[in-house]
Amino acid sequence: MTPDVKHMKWWGWGEEGVFFNYLNKPQFAPFVKKALDIDLRPRKIDTIAFDPDTVPDSTLPDDLAAALVAVTSPDQVSVDPHERVVHGHGSSVTELLHVSRGDYGRLPEVVVYPATDTEVAGVLAAAVEHDAVVVPYGGGTNIARSLQLDPAEKRPIISLDTGLLSGLRELDEDSGLARVGGGMQGPALEEALNDRGWTLGHMPDSFTHSTVGGWAATRSSGMQSDKYGDIAGIVRGMTVVRPAGTVTLRPVPSESTGPSLREMFIGSEGRLGVITELWVQVHRLPAERVVVAYMYPEWKSAVAAIRQIAADEVPTTFVRISDGNETGFSLATQKAATTLKKKLEGKAQAGLWAVMRRRGWNTDQMCISYVCFEGLAADVAARRKAVDAIARRHGALSLGTGPGALYDQKKFDTPYLRDFLLEQDVMGDVSETAAPWSKLNGVHRAVYAAAEKAFAQLGRKGWIMSHLSHSYHAGACLYFTFAFKAGEKPDAEYALVKTAIQQAFVDAGGTLSHHHGVGMEHAPWMEQVVSTEGVALMRSLFDAADPGAHLNPGKVIDAPLTLFDNLE
Q1: Which residues bind FAD (predicted)?
Q2: Which among 20, 158, 150 is positioned nearest to 79, based on CA atoms?
Q3: Among 49, 502, 520, 537, which lies 20 to 30 A Cα-Cα from 306?
């Protein structure tokens, strides 16, 4: 019997029975028609039935199977077809495109659920002895193809599921430190901490299904990083099990002990070992939380305002602005008003737009912003007053807390949109970067130009939009979403658009990825962003740490599959 570990549905994002529904959003279909020149159709399916007969039989060698059972138990080792398909891919749009159509690609021969560090060590030892590959698997949410398997790999592949390596194991309230199992998913951790008056505050878009160990392995950042920090700053210590032994890093506030091993493991994507346990910085639950919405007349003034908030060091939990295209998209996803209150709010919004137009605003260019404040009531009021003043100086109107509260409730729903688009034969995906304030607007322009050029090469309409988030003293993250109607060669079409966007990041002075990791998706650009010698140094590290290439090979650098392989 397979352990009771929560997984997403095998063919798409999230839970069965949860979908993006456009039928209760009257402005959405007209918006998509204008943006992509397609007519939406109602959802045809509620689920895709799994047929085990479509899955090739596992070729797990008997001696390796016996070794894995010996270090765990029969219930913790599975060759079940459904289990193998679930663990055979991540959540990149190209992976989901193929899997949802029954094209599974390379699958692991076996899925193993170790429950202790000793069992993890046993699995790794068995893999080395029998020349197998081990791919750590958390929530399966990665979109950079950090979980995709090499179809040319002839050795047995073991998917090591961390789901049993879970739990809030210790809480040091004096230090604000929590010891957590690497396989613990976001909601379970927050619930356990909240019950004791604490929060981690790390909330990426994948929060509802991703794991703490996965966040560390991919160098994740959450939407509340302005206050709580990126995962690299949140993780204070960890345990990493390797074939040769176990690395234990104590949770200390700071240290001078040579090159940082902690930093080395963060972002390593399973190539240096399995992160089984972490010490993370936690915070007392805030007394008050408020999300306020603002509307700016255009992008540059909104960016200038956010830069001023960062420069003035106004404490915020998050600050986000959507550009004109994303603001238009957000407005198009509003549900139809069915209550008197919602109808009155709709009239008030229409009246506000009319006022903006009379002021000379182009409502296609206006940018909505959300700012979250947390803390004691007096502190929240003072910070909100400071941001209100900055927003007004840059031409913004305050929309109050109503839109902000709705955003806060729906912030984890966006990934379901990709599944909906795939069913409509639309390739929709995201790509993010970070750049200094001095280059941010240039990056924004360059990416739009690159995407539009790629759409023109495809000979069809496409859509791109962006928001700014994750502000720092030196700059911020830009998060782009793009979509286009897929043709007969969706892999090649996607590769054309995605490579254009990634190259624009690099050429305009941005980073390759801000928080989605590298995987195989972004590996081809590593030499451009970390230098030839930097890649050589990484290669030396991976080769020395894993000479037999048993640990998730082909990720971060030297990818066996790249977007360029699909270009025509």
Answers
A1: 205-211, 218-221, 269-275
A2: 158
A3: 502
**Which single residue is written with the structure tokens 């002895």?**
129
Q: What is the DSSP letter of 551?
A: B
Q: Tell me whether residue 479 is one of the annotated catalytic residues.
A: yes
| Residues 380 and 333: beta-carbon distance below 8 Å | no
Q: Which amino acid is it at 110?
A: V
**Spatial CA neighbour of 100 closest among 217, 13, 19:** 13
Hey, CA dihedral for 491, 496, 498, 503, is it positive or negative? positive
Residue with tokens 């994740």: 220
The pair of structure tokens assigned to 247 is 């690395």
Residue of 228, 296, 479, 494 with catalytic role = 479
Report the C-alpha gap between 145 and 427 in whole angstroms. Answer: 16
What would the two tokens of residue 141 be? 């949410």
Question: CB atoms < 10 A from the CB of 561, how many?
Answer: 20
Encode pLDDT of 243-262 as tens digits.
Answer: 999 999 999 999 999 999 99
Closest-CA residue to 228 (of 317, 313, 291, 310): 317
Cβ count near 110 (within 10 Å):
26
Helix or strand holding residue 274 (H, E) = strand 274-281
Bridge partners of 551, per DSSP, are 134
CATH, domain 168-284, list 1.25.10.10, 3.40.50.720, 3.20.20.150, 3.30.465.10: 3.30.465.10
Topology (CATH level 3) of domain 288-411: Alpha-Beta Plaits (3.30.70)
Specify binding-site residues for substrate: 418
Cβ 25 vs Cβ 338: under 8 Å:
no
- The structure's pTM equals 0.95
Which part of the chain has CATH 3.30.70.3450? Answer: 288-411
Distance CA 345, CA 362 (A): 21
| CATH fold of 28-161 | 3.30.43
Torsion, Cα of 394, 396, 401, 403 (10° steps): -120
pLDDT digits (tens, 9 = 90+) for 474-494: 999 999 999 999 999 999 999
- Report the distance separating Cα 469 and Cα 223, nearest Å: 7
> pLDDT, tens digit, for every residue of 376-408?
999 999 999 999 999 999 999 999 988 877 776
H or E element at residue 302: helix 299-311
Residues contributing to the annotated binding site = 205-211, 218-221, 269-275, 418
Do residues 550 and 124 make contact, with C-beta atoms less than 8 angstroms apart?
yes
* 488-524: burial string, b at 16+ Cβ within 10 Å, e else: eebbebbbbbbbbbbbbbbebbbbbbbbbbbbbbbbb
Strand partners, 321: 369, 468
- Every domain range in the chain assigned CATH 3.30.43.10: 28-161
Average pLDDT over residues 338-346: 62
Pairing of strands 283-284, 198-199: antiparallel
For residue range 416-474, what is the model confidence (pLDDT) as tens digits?
888 899 999 999 999 999 999 999 999 999 999 999 999 999 999 999 999 999 999 99
Rounded to whole angstroms, what are the CA distances from 129 to 124, 125, 126, 134, 241? 9, 6, 5, 12, 16
Q: Which of 299, 257, 485 is nearest to 396 (CA)?
A: 299
Beta pairing partners, 289: 374
